[in-house]
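Look over this record as teaching material.
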Amino acid sequence: MAFETLRIPVGPLTFDAVAAGPADGEPMLLLHGFPQTASCWRRVQPALAEAGLRTVAPDLRGYSPGARPLDPAEYRMELLVGDVVGLADALGVDRFHLVGHDWGGALAWHVAAAHPDRVRTLSVISTPHPAAFAAARRSGPSADGDDQREKSRYMDSFRTPGFEDRLLEDDRALLRLVVTGAGMDEESAEASLARFTTRDEVVGALNWYRGAEPADASGMGPITVPTLYVWSTEDIALGRTAAEATEAFVAGPYRFVVLDGVSHWVPEEAADRVVEELLAAVRR
């Protein structure tokens, strides 16, 4: 199966994207997280294409060279949501299946809340609903020892001005530790690191932490679209407390899947299971 490379203009920005599947297939947008690009879906897209879906995985704001403002204020959640809707508009897509992992998952929750008329199904991998995440951070350690506040301490470093220089030191040694220490396989780690060689590239990625808040759930109503949420037990960044609390924020049909023994990098590590669950969600 051949991947297609796209350049998609949205207002003054231009997003790079990777597409797969028949042009007339049901559209599905795949949103990546930090510190990744569309390549994180490379093990998922072929099977979805074989099933007849038209998948488009963009390099999001901060990651596409043509969509990389350096001001953190340009990464407010409403602007990121506008990017996704703008991408769909540019592709000529009215309604679409929406999938997100990590920061892409946080963004996907917000898109589904703000534009339920555009989202046919929502599938989020790893990232709990923003309100569940915020509550877990506030509450401190749970009875079973899960502590989302502690798991999220790395965010303070990512928000610190100049931290991008530390991530670039010694041939990106710290950035490599961030991904491999969380369980990413070597091939995927190399694919991610290859896209972060300059200061601006790292700043663009860190600006998601500096300009937008994963806990910025003010004004979000309940999620009404059919929703799949996949969480893995070996995720060192996102704990069970928020994962299990997410159901309370979904008013539509909901399925919660727990992957035992899988790290945070679910699309790479458990691609077959991700495909299985996404296809089931679409067919339901």
Remarks:
- The mean pLDDT is 95.
